[in-house]
Structures are given as structure tokens and as C-alpha cells.
Amino acid sequence: MIWIMAWRNIWRNKMRSIIIMLSVAIGLFAGIGVQSLYDGMMTSRVRNVIDEETGHIQLHNPGFKNDYEPRYVIDNGNNLLTKIRSIEGVKFASARSITTGMLSTPTGSAGVQVNGIVAEDEYKTSLLKQKIIAGKEFNDAAENEIIIGKKLADKMKLRPGLKLVLTFTDTTGEIVSSAFRVAAVYESSNTPLDERNVYVKQATLNNLLLCGNAFQEIVVLLQNDLDTEKKQKQLQQLFPSLKIESWKELSPETEFMVKTVDQYSYIIMIIIMLALAFGIINTMLMAVLERTKEIGMMVALGTNRIRIFFLVLFETVFLTFAGTPVGLAISWIFISYFHKHGLDLSGMGKEMMNRFGFGTLIYLEFPFDKLAGVLLIVIGTALISFLFPALKALKLQPAEALRQ
Amino acid sequence: MGNTVIDAHNVNKVYNPDTIPVYAINNVHLHIEEGEFTALVGPSGSGKTTLLNLIGGLDKPDQGNIVINGVDITQLSPGELIEFRLKNIGFVFQSFNLIPVLTAKENAEFIMLLQGAKKATRNERIGQLFKEIEMEDKLNSRPAQLSGGQQQRVAVARALASKPKFVLADEPTANLDSKSASNLLDIMARLNKEEKITFLFSTHDQRVIERAKRVITLVDGKITSDTAMVDTNILHAEIK
Fold it and tell me: Do the Cβ atoms of B211 and B25 come closer than 8 Å?
């Protein structure tokens, strides 16, 4: 009987109840929308890290990571590369020769990381080919070609066809310089990366580094993102002398961002629902005060305080939860659309988004894994909202209430 | 003598005791037996509603004892009082006070539901009462769809549904037209006679006072007269 009364009571003032239900629905939609946007952004960021920066796993000589000195090559690297490519679950693995140095043009100079790549292999482990926006891929015939990022090209006033000089130390510690011609300019979703990384042919770089056919880095791309930790452990067992890191260790700021953004999204959700709670408290308080005489009469007839408590609780829960399926449905429709078509945030500032490593087309993700948390927050909102009106109702003295 | 239903001793209720004290009830002694049909009369502000509230356990006296069916309700906690009211007292209020979201039937069986009565028992009792109050066709009507007289009859049915020891009615006919008031009094008198339910009601209404078997007059919180009325039916029979 009490829950039937509660359900009917919320429809005594239809307009007021509908407004609260819609507020809950919109609040829920806003909360889930923010979470889906964050999830989409983080998924995009992680994708960018894996596809454009680190791959899933990288292998190095432990000494290399200290100072990025090219003399720390991976011993017997080509054999390892062949072995890794044959491991189940590995999509592809490519080798990079790496050194750090100075890029100079008549207009200035900049510190860069020089990546020596085998173009065909690199294109299978990163999106470098797809990110080329000007010029052409490496020409097999030409030796000293270089692919540079757009940010660096703009800064150094470079374009395809122009020349530059790279200076770095070889594996013996001697300084070596060489001129390169810009073959292409690429633009990734990570501006700082574009400004720092340049790509040359591995054979050319190895000649200058005097390291034969050795290299400093193996990049592994897996078939499934979720296998990263498992494969990392497997590789570590196979090659215990190497430093083997997953993208989470190679890009700790991304891992940190994913974790903190999860927390932020919950905090935003809680703030939205907390604001809503005041609306619900106001409505429920009005509903209780309007019915002072009725509640007093119910107590006079013998309705105990527990039943009055549950009456107000049920009314609040119904009011809160009636808006929940509507909010979930709106969220589902909205997120499904933008999951398919992507949400273009370039209007918010493409450069700013790229500076933090985010693409501007975000594919929203429905936060299924967070639904339980979201529903808990809704329940918490209902519980917070009902307490004050319920206490008010419990304090009513029947004789006084009946006099009103 | 029948069983004592209400026994009030030296009951006092003072409002604003710290500023300007108002003696709403002043040293009242009251004794009501089972099956009585008693009217509590007096001018406005004489303390009728306050006395009914005290007897009904809706308010606590500042002094004195009120014993209902052998239980001193002034010693009960608020929770125990609610339980006591549920099991022992039926209330009829001046302004009907039906629950607007419940149908007439649901309103009438409200107390039985609180008592945990089974559906079959409730249906039987409500059917019987609605026959008594001649509202069998209004079982599923909401209060807003009923006239004032009909609402008050439902309120009486609600008060009697759980077969309480006695019914307290605060000006039950005040908001009714004369025909509805007369019908209601007929119902109350019949239930008093047939089911031996004790009625104590406050009233200004001369028609109600004429139907009472006993009239207690309250002035400024004090009982100034307590008169047993002549049963006109008996009188008529004797004359014949």
C-alpha cells in the first residue's frame, strides 16, 4: 500500500514531477555524455600512442634508455626481430635505429630524435605513411632523404625538396654531420612528437652511426590491445637481458591521464547529481509540507514512523528513477550516433587538442563499465535527497499537523 | 454498568505555560462506558478538540491521567501511542481527511491494511460497511469524485473498519448539509446500537446533540454539565 501511495503521490503535481524527472534524465545524460566523451578521448589518445608513437611494446638495450646513446644497440637484433615476428598474437615488429642530434637550416637549428627506419616495415607498425601531408614517401634510389613533422617544418621554414643538415655522434663518440633533403612532411595528432621526431632510411643512418646493420629499438604491434601485458611478460621471459616496456611505461603520462580522467568523470557526475539533489530536495520538501495535514492524519490513524519514512523514500526513489531510463535512452541514442560518425571537436582548437596528443574527431564510447557506478551515484542522489524531507515528515506531531 | 472505555482524571492542558498561560483543559474528569453515544458540546475555543486529541493520544496532557481500556496512555511513548491508536481508536475528522490518492475502498481499509488484515477479511468488512453507509457503488471512486457527505461516510467506514473500541469524532457534521448530516448520524447511531461501538463526538450542531444519549458541556476547558438525555424512542413507547 505504501509504495502504491508513493507512486500515486508523485503524480499529484504532474508538472513538478515531470520537471524533476526530466532534470534527472538530462543530468544523467550530461554525466554519461561527459564520461563517454572522456572515454572516447582516452581511447583516441591510447590509439594514437600505440599507432603513432610507441606501438604496443618496445625492446631496447637497457643502457640505451639512459642517455639515448646509439652505441647501445640490441645485440643480435635481426635474429630477435625474426623471432618476435613469429610469436603468436604479434601483428608485426619493426626495427628502428635511433640517435639524438641537431637539425640545422640557414634559418636556425632544433634538437631532434633521428629515427632510422625501413619504410615498408615502419608503415606496418605505425601510421607514418597515412600522416604524410606533403611530399612523397622515401624514394628507393635516393639515400639522404628525410621525413619531418609539420610543426618542425613550420618552425624551420622547411618544405619537401629543401635541404637540412643533421649533426649527431656516431657509435664511436665522434661527431658526424650529413645533409638531407626533405622528402615529405607528416602531421600526427601529437604536435610535440611532430616537432621532435624525424625519419630517415635505416641504412643511411646506420652508415653514419657506423653500426652496420644493428639497431637500437624494436617496435612490436600486437593483434589485440588487451594482450599487451601478457605479451610483455612473454617477451621478457624470452629476452631477459633487454628492457621491454609497454606503451603504458613508454607513455606514462597517457596511462596517468586515463586513470585521472576516469576519476574526473565520476567527480563531474557527482557534481551534476549533487546539483540535481537540491532540486529533488526542494520538490520533496514541498510535497511533504503541502501534505502536513494528510501525514498528520495518517500518523493519527496509526501509521508508524517507519511507514512514513518509507513513503517519502519511495516517492523520492520513484521520482529519481523514473528519469533514469529516459536519461539512459537519450545517452544511448546520442552516443551511438557519435560512436559511428565521430564528434568533431576541431572547433575547440585543433592545435590545442594536438598539443595534448588528442585527435579532433572523437568517437564516443558508451561507458558500459561505468554504468554500475553511475547508477550508484543516482541511488546516492535519491538517498541524499529524501533524508531531509523524510526527517521533516517524521517530526510532524499529529495534533499540530491536523490543526493546519 | 458496562465496561469503562475512557477514564480521565484531573486532566490539564496548558498552552504557553512560560508566557501567558492558556488553560485549554482545566482539571477535567471524565468517565465513559462501553456503548455510550456521547456529545461533547461547547462554544468555539472551549477545548473540545483539545480534549478529544488528549483522549485520542494525539496530544499529551500537562497533568493528569487518561486511561483507555485499562491502559494509561499518558505513560506511553510516541511509538506505543501510534500502535495503541491503531488497535483501539477510530477517528472521524471535521474535514473528512481522506487520502486523496486512494479510492474510497482503499481509504476505508487503510487501517486494516496497517493492522495486517488479510484481503478476504478486508473485503468482507469493507463490503459490509459500504452496504451500511449505502455507498456500494462508490468503492472505486477517489475522494475528489465524492460529495462532502459521501466522503464523511467513507471516513466513518474507515474509523469503524477495524472494529475499534471507540470512535472519536471531531465535529463530524460541521461541513455537511442537513440531509447528509442526518444520514451520517443515522449510520453512527445504528452502528452504536448494533455493534456496540462507543462514540464520543464534539459538536455545535443541535441536531447531533438531540441524537446523543449523553451530553457533556465544556466551557473554558472545564466540564460545566454532564447530562444523560432521555431516549425519545423509549419516551414515545411509554406514552403509548
Answer: no
Q: How many CA atoms does the CB half-sphere of B30 hold within 13 Å?
A: 35
In tens, the pLDDT along A321-365 reads 888 899 999 999 999 999 999 888 877 777 777 777 777 788 888
Domain coordinates of chain B in residue numbers?
Answer: 4-239
Show residues of chain A in contact with B79, CB under 8 Å. Answer: 304-305
Cβ-based neighbour number of residue A85 at 10 Å: 15
If we measure between CA atoms, which residue out of A28, A26, A33, A36 comes closest to residue A367? A36
Q: Which CATH architecture has domain B4-239?
A: 3-Layer(aba) Sandwich (3.40)
Contact B157, B133 (CB under 8 A): yes
ipTM of the complex: 0.86
Q: Which helix (H) or strand (E) holds A368?
A: none
Going by C-alpha positions, the residue among A157, A206, A191, A180 that lies closest to residue A102 is A180
CA distance A291 to chain B (A): 10
Instruction: Tell me whether A233 touches chain B (CB under 8 Å).
Output: no
- The structural domains of chain A, with segments of one domain joined by +, span 2-49+254-403, 62-241
Gap between the Cα atoms of A79 and A74, Å rounded: 10
CA A279 to chain centre: 33
pLDDT, tens digit, for every residue of B152-185?
A: 889 888 988 888 888 999 888 887 778 878 888 8
